[in-house]
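Shapes recur. One chain:

:::
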Amino acid sequence: MDDLGLDLSGLLRRAVVEPTGRTVGRVRDVVVRLRGQDYPPVAGLVTDLGGRSVFLPVEFVSSWAGARVAVRTAHLDVRGFQRRAGEVLLRADVLGHRLVDIRHARLVRAYDVHLAPRGSELVVAGLRTTRSVHRRGGDASFHDWRSFEALIGHEPTVLVRSTFGRLRSLRAAELADILQDASDREQAEILAVVHQDPELEADVYEELDEQRGTLLAARPDCDIAQVLSRMRTDDAADALMDLPQRRRATVIAELPPQLRAALTDLLSYNQASAGGLMGLEYLAIPEQVTAGEALAIARAARNATLETSVTLHLLDHTGALTGTVPLLRIVQADPTTPLLDLADHDPVRVTPDTDLADLAVLMADHNLPTLPVVGPDGHLLGVVTIDDVLPATIPAAWRLRDPDTRPEAEPRPLTSRPS
């Protein structure tokens, strides 16, 4: 091996030669150990010695030069190779398999792996994700290893990696898109990592489309209920309807009583209407408070979402909607200003049976991020957000377009020369 390192494709099947020059086996795989966000160091080789897979520690290698791997001793441990948690087999787990390209939030296939020296170690430095090779001096066709997350399929290693994996740096919508394109095995591994962050897991299920019901149905009722309890109420209702009918009642029975009642109410409406789309997490404030008091209430709120919190809803003593106020207007006002002096007392509002087309037109015509939904008595029932309406109006074909490249800078690649 020279200072530029070596490629996995050129290392596999190389002869393993002892000090006397006798060939004792051939390289079958390369074992690396995960080490946080750093480049994984090579721990050793899986070698084929007389038809038996034997582990050769990297410390035993004296030279990588030429078309062979020279070892320092003829006394090798010939016990069968046993994989450990946290280990990745580059040929079995990576080469030819798909990985998550973190920078572009998509699945790509690994066609080769580049190993480079770093100090006294040999580490995984890069991946080639195209069949063709375009070398312009060195390893230009390889991309930095830290830009990818390998889907290994080895459960103990998945659990070790989940504490520092790069998957959790992706947005929920990006993870949902990746899951839509993933195989069953890939989905299982991605979800196992996401499961370590319950809030992210709930957000991912909110973003899923066609496969949400299938992925949820593969889990026990109690697990589904835990995911639903962290979702927005309207999204939880949609997810519940995605389940097979025979599962819905048993899942509902596992939910907390308050959420169970809320979902039962939402499910009584048509899914393509304001009642079916509205959320129950919003900011509702007594109409007689001041701007300062309203901000204190908003700060203490735990059930409102970011999407619904752009507007505060004023209620009279009966719970009827009497006005709305943009949050920004309250922030900019004197804290002693009565909220009634800042409010729109005739806000655009809809009833539960307002259909999707009318919702979209109203929000576009009035430039509204949210729309309150009221009952016959004027009581506030829920709030529809642009986040609810927009996904339902986007043509299905638009979702098939390739996403734009994420603007974040690609990690600085590891220099191939020893430090």
User: Anything to note?
Assistant: The longest helix spans residues 184-194. The first strand starts at residue 6 and ends at 7. The mean pLDDT is 88. Residues 275-389 form a domain with the CBS-domain fold (CATH 3.10.580.10).
